[in-house]
Amino acid sequence: MNEAARPLKRTEIRQQNEALILKAAEKVFAEAGFGGATMQLIADMAGLPKANLHYYFATKEDLYRRVVQNIFEIWLEAAEAMDVADDPVTGIGAYIEAKMAISRAHPDGSKVWAYEVMHGAPVIQDYLETTLRDWTNDRIARIEGWIAAGKIKPIAPRHLLYMIWATTQHYADFGHQIATLNRGPLSDEDWRRATAAVKEILLRGIGALD
């Protein structure tokens, strides 16, 4: 049987429907916030009956937490290069590149996270107090190792991470402002230059580059 004509398995149908729902939910939550979003709005955006949403996600909060978890896990994966790199140029540089690429590919997910945190994280405070805090402490220890080895200046690792997050996520959260000032959406070349500039400014600032 031709692969294209093969009937989809139930697990494949479920994966496709979940992906469709999550993409729609990202956009609706990014535009309306948790309070303004409704399951009906998300269903309309996904082009599915509202009952389908409740089949996969019992409540709006369940769906919201899944959207937040998805972008959070993508960000966590972006730091893997920093964990295995021997030097900060390679490790932090790859982390910046990954975070910039995520801002381009998942702007709505980043906006949902920003909206939630700016409103006191009423739904995901547990993420901040556990997973994110532990992750941050581990990365701080990694950066402190490079400082001890004389590979970067004796900067404050925590604030370096904050700067990386703020700068890279700015390209997602304030994409409209950037597009306006750029007289249009960033092109492939614009993104390449932006990523290179962010890397150079941050790496040179911490003394990783000569």
Automatic annotation (TrEMBL):
What sequence ranges are listed for the domain HTH tetR-type? 15-75
The GO terms this record gives for MF are: DNA-binding transcription factor activity; transcription cis-regulatory region binding
Q: Pfam families given for it?
A: TetR_C_3 (PF08362), TetR_N (PF00440)
What are the DNA-binding region positions? 38-57
Record's keyword terms, sorted: DNA-binding
Q: Which domain of life is it from?
A: Bacteria
Q: Name one GO biological process term.
A: negative regulation of DNA-templated transcription
The portions of this protein that span the membrane are none
Give the protein's recorded name. TetR family transcriptional regulator
Species of origin reads Stagnihabitans tardus
